[in-house]
């Protein structure tokens, strides 16, 4: 679910006219990922940090190509 929301946000046409974007994530986390709202003992709901960077790279987020993207992650690391 988190990946879908991020992909939808990355594809927004409004980014064509923006100069930059800020992404702020606040969640529980594990070593290399943040936890989603359904993460628990029975359900693995995690989003690897690398997935965030990949979704917003110049190839996958062309409307923000060569524009600053500030990503702030406030999460424990497990």
UniProtKB/TrEMBL annotation:
One annotated GO biological process: proteolysis
Keyword Protease belongs to the record: yes
Domain (Caspase family p20): residue spans on this chain: 1-78
GO cellular component: a single term: AIM2 inflammasome complex
Keywords, alphabetical: Hydrolase, Protease, Thiol protease, Zymogen
A GO molecular function held by the record: cysteine-type endopeptidase activity
Entry's transmembrane regions: none
Keyword Hydrolase: yes
Gene3D superfamilies (UniProt xref): 3.40.50.1460
Xref: PANTHER family: CASPASE RECRUITMENT DOMAIN-CONTAINING PROTEIN 18 (PTHR47901), CASPASE-1 (PTHR47901:SF3)
Family classification: Belongs to the peptidase C14A family.
Name of the featured protein: Caspase family p20 domain-containing protein
